[in-house]
Amino acid sequence: MTSLPPRRPPTSRRQALGALVAFGAAASLPSPAIGQATSEKPLVRPIPSSNEPMPAVGLGTWITFNVGNDRALREQCTAVMRAFFEAGGRLIDSSPMYGSAQDVVGDGLVRLGHPRALFAADKVWIGAGARGPEQIETSRQRWRVARFDLLQVHNLLAWQEHLPTLMAMKAEGRLRYVGITTSEGRRHREFEQVMREHPLDFVQFSYNVLDREAEARLLPLARERRIAVIVNRPFRQGDLTRALARQPLPAWTAEIGCSTWAQVLLKFILAHPAVTCAIPATSSVEHVRENLAAARGPLPDAAMLKRIVAHVEKFA
Amino acid sequence: MSEWWTYRPSDFLLFAPRTYYRLVETYNAEWWPWQAVTLAAALALVALSWRRARNAGRVVALVLAFAWGFIAWRFHWERYATINWAAVYFAGAFALQATLLAWTGLVGGLDYGGTSRRRRYAGLALIVTALAVVPFAALAAGRPWRQLEIAGLSPDPTAILTLGLLLVARRAHWALYAVPVLWCLASGLTLWTMKAPDAFIPLLAALVAAAAVVSLRLRGR
Lengths: 316, 221
Known about the structure:
The complex is a heterodimer. Chain A starts with 12 loop residues before the first helix and ends with a helix. Chain A is α/β, with parallel strands linked by helices. Chain B starts with 16 loop residues before the first helix and ends with a helix. Chain B is globular. The relative contact order of chain B is 0.14. Chain B is an all-alpha fold. Chain B has one domain. The chains are: A alpha/beta, B mainly alpha. Chains A and B meet through loops of A and α1 of B.
């Protein structure tokens, strides 16, 4: 991958503006075309199916929150969650596949007094569709929440059986949003088909400076179908930030208000108008603050995006 | 699993290295100072088998069975399973190994009646690896002594010690090698995925033991 594929223009600028006016967030419209017009307010994107505003940086829990019963490490995770909410974060994403992560999130929520800002996103991940409701209930108990805001079919596992269950939960008011996930570019064809044929609120897939396959079809389709996009593995599970750690931050990154490589990588993702929220995972309070700070200040324009890609491809 | 060829070992690593080593540390703290006792017991087993003492084969098999059963329950089931759901299956495999060793001990024990020099020295190399190389390699890798893995309490050195004591025996059923070799492979891959510099130790131990077993089977011994 040596050059950026062309980005599609928004399918309806009027629609996008309408949603933003409704939430008074017009200044933060994230489009390369008007990237320079962003304000210092944290970037908030509307969930297309409801227009509910969503801060553009969330918190992933893959690996980092799987700390078992270790009290000291659980306290670190709670500190990360506290810093996340203090910086204006909302969406926390987990899965029954992530070991003890759900329980660690639930523990943190109790210690923080159940922050009202929380947007609880979890997944169903089990091969037998009939056992989905039982797994969802176990997950809910681990999170210690009354209900989930969003449930996604993890990696499309048994999606034909789980989607009707999730849609029924939504219809009964026991769930607010329904989605599907994949990662690392797997099963994009089938993913696209589900996006086309089912009324999804959210999709989640991998997208970062080096893994840009989603730009060709999934991101434009999400805009067309008015589906919110959660981006996982924004740093390729830390590989990108580790590879860039020894490289000095180029002076031109100051133009988009970046002080770390992580912020450059996140701003690259957030610059895509179809992206609703990126969910970097971290176990460091300092890093979660840096990540949330990436949702402030100007976003890169098309020329800057090309520059970021060229620079990162040289070193990562 | 569709598109299985796109998966890498790192896709199956559910925890961070710091979480795993903290787990070893808290496990060690819970059982301190039993590390000294299990180390002394391991040295006693080595002495008994090397000197071909009377009933050595029975004692070695039964003590090892106890260690495998203990690790199945206390390490895999109670601790490792909190960060790795696959540890439930590891606990089952360790319990199976404990059963096989206990059965061997009850029906007569391992045969320490003398074997080839090559086999004895291969076994001795694995024993030294389990008792000395594993802990010192961890120190060399920069981990604190509280995170050292000790034979009799931790799975890696116990599996390598078991392979060594099986090789020193004149005859041991091939089934007794299966779980320790598979564990060494699984653990080595996990450590390699965690980018641990000592990941090669369990992998090498598995290779040595597997090569020895295959060679013996080919010779019909």
